[in-house]
């Protein structure tokens, strides 16, 4: 890159690559710094909802993503104890409603698609650079790393849950949910004899646990995620989330779930953290994006989606404020911040509530199951606020769904907080 970059992006995950691509497509010179020796992603699955496939289409990447992924027919929710179907969302119908498909894809395939697009667009992609600090000044920002310092008119920090840049905005720490995820993406022939769906995303919801299954790579692979609350985490112990806890957490679940457990990767697991929403992600010419700004619990499958939406929103605002001397960065960053902080706060807080709903026990679980069984499968109230077009301004943000009253299914319940768990925040 002869002249200096217009934008420095820190972090080469899905969020960093998406930002680099979106801004390069607006004619800007972007340099991206990644600490790892090579670009890459964990080899598990990712759900990409219509609010993001719409954006991938605008970047010219949707055909490639569809050719690498799977377009499931439905999202199906089942009870993890008895295996019964609780509710479903027809994804062909949703495609018609939102004008864009729902896709499931191997993470490394989506990451690879974004990486190839960045290379083709001319992003200056640099690995092996660990950023250690940031400075802001009038009209620009600086990143500090082991090899020195680099300055640009704008720095975007896409450095994930444990973001260094976030420390300039807040002294908060990741919030432990005491839940842990096991993953496993395996050749499909390993589940050929099992009672699994190769055309749906299925989530079994159970007491303090859930289990997700869906096909990947045009049906050549099968993805599973097992999530449970760790008793050792609750007890404040360091050694939480181990395979013995996995087996104990799912011991009482239905045959389909227990059949899938031996196929999980057992040598690594992911403790589930989010953070409290922040009201501000922009300081001068430094901005947070992706998980650095708004790491969610994964229950709405919107973390990577939000990261890509961030990229699209910022680039649209930059494009709308371009001038021969360069974009009006301050106005673009302000417009980005005002709309995205509001939206992502909703997703983060609703994801927590959604997780509570999934993991209910006893009478609360009965209430939840009755509500879900009574739900009209063509009712899109719970996803309209997510799957519609990404808002560029706060007034474009759709209304939230209405809370479900406790007595809505005529089921007397002593549930302590059942009405609360589906109350949008
Ligand atoms: C079990 C599970 C299931 C999920 N399922 C879904 C799903 O179905 N759909 C969905 O949309 N989301 C899902 N998510 C969330 C999603 O994975 C994340 O929100 C998303 O990957 C965040 O991307 P990111 O680029 O912002 O951050 P990251 O992926 O964390 O990338 C950060 C990058 O920055 C680099 N980096 C960090 N620090 C530095 C530094 N100091 N200097 C230089 N580089 C640095 C890292 O090496 C990394 O490459 C799931 C998450 C989990 C845990």
Shape-level CATH architecture of the domain at 175-274 = 2-Layer Sandwich
Q: What is the makeup of the main sheet?
A: 7 strands, mixed
How big a fraction of the residues is strand? 15-25%
Mean pLDDT: 94
What would you say this structure looks like, in words?
This protein has 425 residues and is of the alpha/beta class. Among the domains are: 100 residues, 2-Layer Sandwich (D-Amino Acid Oxidase, Chain A, domain 2), CATH 3.30.9; 62 residues, no CATH class. 33% of the residues lie in helices and 24% in strands. The protein has a seven-stranded mixed sheet. Strands 7-2-1-11-18-17 form a six-stranded mixed sheet, with helices on one face. The longest helix is centred in the last third of the chain and has 30 residues. The protein is globular and about 65 Å long. Bound molecules: flavin-adenine dinucleotide.
């Amino acid at each position: 890159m002869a002249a200096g970059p217009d934008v420095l992006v820190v972090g080469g995950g899905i969020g960093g690559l998406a930002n680099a691509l979106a801004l390069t497509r607006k004619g800007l010179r972007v340099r991206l710094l990644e600490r790892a020796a090579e670009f890459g992603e964990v080899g598990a699955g990712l759900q990409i909802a219509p609010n993001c496939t719409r954006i991938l289409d605008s970047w010219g990447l949707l055909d490639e993503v569809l050719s690498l992924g799977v377009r499931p027919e439905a999202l199906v929710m089942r009870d993890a104890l008895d295996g019964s179907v609780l509710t479903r969302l027809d994804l062909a119908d949703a495609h018609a409603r939102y004008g864009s498909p729902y896709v499931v894809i191997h993470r490394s395939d989506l990451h690879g698609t974004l990486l190839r697009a960045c290379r083709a667009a001319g992003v200056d992609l640099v690995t092996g650079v660990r950023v250690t600090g940031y400075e802001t000044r009038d009209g620009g920002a600086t990143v500090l790393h082991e090899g020195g310092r680099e300055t640009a008119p704008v720095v975007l920090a896409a450095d994930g849950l444990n973001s260094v840049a976030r420390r300039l905005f807040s002294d908060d720490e990741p919030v432990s949910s005491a839940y842990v995820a096991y993953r496993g993406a395996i050749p499909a022939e390993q589940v050929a004899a099992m009672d699994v769906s190769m055309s749906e995303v299925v989530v079994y919801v159970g007491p303090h646990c859930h289990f997700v299954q869906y096909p990947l790579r045009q049906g050549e692979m099968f993805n599973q995620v097992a999530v449970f609350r760790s008793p050792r985490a609750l007890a404040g112990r360091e050694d939480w989330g181990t395979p013995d806890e996995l087996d104990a957490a799912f011991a009482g679940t239905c045959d389909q779930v227990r059949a899938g457990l031996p196929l999980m990767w057992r040598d690594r697991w992911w403790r589930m953290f989010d953070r409290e929403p922040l009201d501000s992600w922009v300081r001068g010419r430094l901005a947070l994006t992706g998980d650095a700004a708004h790491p969610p619990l994964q229950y709405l499958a919107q973390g990577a989606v939000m990261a890509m939406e961030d990229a699209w929103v910022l680039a649209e605002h930059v494009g709308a404020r371009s001038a021969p001397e360069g974009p009006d960065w301050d106005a673009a960053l302000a417009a980005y911040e005002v709309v995205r902080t509001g939206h992502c706060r909703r997703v983060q807080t609703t994801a927590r509530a959604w997780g509570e709903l999934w993991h209910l026990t006893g009478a609360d679980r009965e209430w939840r199951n009755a509500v879900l069984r009574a739900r009209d499968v063509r009712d899109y109230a719970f996803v309209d606020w997510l799957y519609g077009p990404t808002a560029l301004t706060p007034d474009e943000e759709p209304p939230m769904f209405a809370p479900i009253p406790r007595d809505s299914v005529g089921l007397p319940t002593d549930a302590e907080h059942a009405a609360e768990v589906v109350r949008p925040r």
